[in-house]
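Reopening this ticket.

The earlier resolution said the output was attached, but the attachment link was broken on my side. Pasting everything inline this time so it's all in one place.
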Amino acid sequence: MPKTIAIVEDEPSIRENYADALKRHGYQVLSYGNRESASLAFRKTLPDLVLLDIALEDEMDAGFDLCRELREQSSTLPIIFLTARDSDVDTVSGLRLGADDYLTKDVSLTHLTARISALFRRLEALKASGDAADKILQRADLELDLDRFTATWQQHPIDLTLTEFWIVHALAMRPGHVKNREQLMQDASIFVDDSTITSHIKRIRKKFESVDDHFESIDTVYGMGYRWKE
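Inline output:
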């Protein structure tokens, strides 16, 4: 069954251009021109992935508000910001709100569809068949359920986004081994730059620290990358 992608973009020509490109790749597309119409639709049914602009009509941060709402509904729904705003502040803000990716509108359609495909590949990889026991990754106080996309720390649930889940999974698979950006991309089937990885790691740490003030299992190895330590 084709995946459904929702595009929230207030410029009709841009919205139609993205919609046509995604339809050619076999996706079903839902289009919304403002925050209100998108929010109403998402409360009824969530799509498989959302592309969000930040400024919508006269609301300068409408996309951020929508991202918050969507994360309250689902921690694993793939969300990509696709916007003309390219400042570091906006990028970090979008990722802190739980977006899986942040792209600017100068990105090629080929690159955009590749990033979308990568997010869907991660979902399929986590759902891949296997023994029930193989779907649980246990590392001391950490437990990852690859079937339900859930994480717990000291038996407390940690609400990780899909990207955050994959990063934790990639690190915890081999404790003590340093993962640089390229290795994290390969392991997690994602494309990320250095600032994006840094923002994701900071957000992940804060989530674990919210249930454990002494959380130190994600170690930064300066100049090299990150590792999971027990």
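Reporter confirms the inline version is readable. The CA atoms of residues 161 and 193 lie 18 Å apart. The chain has a mean pLDDT of 87.
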